[in-house]
Sequence to fold (275 residues):
Amino acid sequence: MNILIVGLGLMGASYASGLRKKGHTVYGVDINKDSIEYAKEYHIIDDGSLNPSDFINKVDLLILGLYPFDILDFIKKYHSSFNENLIVTDLCGVKRHFIDEAISLTRPATYISHHPMAGREKVGARFNDPNIFKGANFLIIDKNNKEREINVLKELAAALEFGKISIITPEKHDKMIGFTSQLAHAIAVSLVNSDTEEDTNAFIGDSYRDLTRIAKINRDLWSELFFSNKDYLISEINNFEQELEKLKNSLINDDSKALKDIFVKAKEKREKMEK
Fold:
């Protein structure tokens, strides 16, 4: 395929690097000229430009590696260049707030959204690594899409060596992401910010390190993700607070059985995820 990736950050550049290695022709666009030059110098892309119009008519697939609030603005600006054979997709971490309008604005091209469940706490093309996708979950967002565009995304997932592919609605996506991704980031941030000591680093082990890795957060991106999905995220925070309250109360009440029951329940649920 001929592919255009708009946004050569960590994810966009990792997509580009992996897809080019699998024989696809990959063009890159970014607002940062240095990112384009880096991607060209290290053969992450075949060619690049500050102007998407230089490539839109040459490609079969347009991948938007943009922040949530920028996706519709991009489509509105460039949709006049879209043709009926073009498939447009995004890899954004939220869906409901823009997907219906994106589908409408993209016509005569076809819009189908997806979400790669992988990433790193780094920013920029120089941190690109297609290996982060190996075995990861790949979510396809279905809004009455046809087999053709679903198969194109499956081909994309196979080229990047993703693992399980799931086809879900935007609502199901945002609800699950509110729990598995956004709540996890909220907990990590809150845990780090609850630190009251000056020498915590001297006491850090694997538990703290693993739990707080994702607290090295991109403030601009994640604030958009949180606000775009705040209804589901607030609900998940409430559920988490209830579970934490149960644990706290078992300590307050010196209730060893209740505490052990909480541990057993968590252990069993976590082990089922590994089967």
Residues 197 and 203 are 10 Å apart (CA to CA). The beta strands are 2-6, 25-29, 47-49, 61-64, 87-90, 110-111, 113-116, 138-141, 165-168. Residues 173-273 form a domain with the 6-phosphogluconate dehydrogenase C-terminal fold fold (CATH 1.10.3660.10). The mean pLDDT is 95.
